[in-house]
Every structure is written in structure tokens, then in C-alpha cells.
Amino acid sequence: MGVFDPLKKQIVETAQELVRKGYLMATGGNLSLRIPGQDGFAITPSNYDYLKMTPDDVCVLDFDLNPLEGRLKPSVEASMHGAVYQVRRDVNAIVHTHQVFTSTLTLIKAPIPTLFDEQARFLGRRVDIIPYAPSGTAFLRNTVAKHVKNHNNAFMLQNHGALVFGHDMERAVHNVEILEKCAQAYLLAICSERRISRIPLAVREIAFAKLRGDQKRIEQGENVKGGE
Fold first, then answer.
1. What pTM was estimated for this model as a whole?
2. How high is the mean pLDDT of the chain?
């Protein structure tokens, strides 16, 4: 077994899980895992059917996007993933999807305020909109790198989709699910044209402090159980 094989296997299994759950469709979106102890990551290939994907199809790159392993072209968003790993040392897994409710909110440029306890605990203070930039460009990479430094774990890419982080892939998938719940609930609440309640400020700040505490431990190489 190759040194990168466990990461590649987990990426394929997770991608297919996200397809079954409806968060990934066709060849859209991408996901990656940081290589422990190295300046590099494994990422899904470009324009490849997730249900046909095998571990041998996954690409392994360093942070300069030089190939370390893999025979296919990496996702066009590889530079965005690499930039996130460099500015967020607490992030070990990244999932980018075009999930429907989150994507809808990107079209009306509606950040999601803190609506639920689990949102504050695992996603951060709120889910911000990252301004539009064309896919696969240095402009997108630099825009994302600038905006993700606020320690939140979920963002919306304007007119594009969701960008979600975790300290491991399991947590990243859970955060994808939390984000879509929040997006769906918020969109329905907006449609009601009634006042939308938010969790109290004190509760939000306590939850975010716990999230930051977990992130700092991860940055120091400690294991975190139960989520960031």
C-alpha cells in the first residue's frame, strides 16, 4: 500500500457518500485532505464522475501544485484548496459542493446569521458570502484565502456554491449537512416575511470560543474528539 492510499481511499468513499446524500451531483464540486506532516494534499480529479472514481484517480499535490502522485488532471479548484491549507492550519479537510439551498442564497447574496446552536459551535459566528470570482482562477484563490482567515468553517461562494472545512473529513461532511440545514431553514424563513429570530449573543460567543479552542489545539497537533 502506498503512503497516500488511505487518504485517496477516504476521498473516494466520501465523494460517493456525498453523491448518495445529494450534496454532490455529476462531476460538480471537489474535496481534499491535507497530507499529515507534509506541505501537500490529496484532491479529486477534474471533471470526473464520482460514482466511477477509484483511489487511483485521486491526485496528490504539494502546495505549489506540483504533482506527487496521480495520472489525472487535478480539480480546477486545486489552488483554492492549497491556499486554504496554508492560511488555516486547523483545517485538514475541505469540501466544495453546489448544494441547492446554499447555492440559492449565494444568488441573493444573503449571509446566514447565527440561527442554531450547532451552527455556532461548528460553523462559526455566521456564514459569509465570498465575492464572486471565476472558477479555477488566481483571483478566486486569493479572494478565498483572504476571507477564510476569520476562523469560520463554512462559506458561500457567490453565484457558485458552498465551501466547508473540518479538522477531518468526517467533521467536514457533518458541517456540509449543518450548512444545508441552515440554508434551507433561512431561505424558508425569508420567504415567510416574518421576523427571523437568532440565538442570543452570549450563547453564540460561548460556542464560538469553544470552536476557537478546538482549532488552537488542532494547530498545536492535538487530537480533537467530538468536532472542532
1. 0.96
2. 96
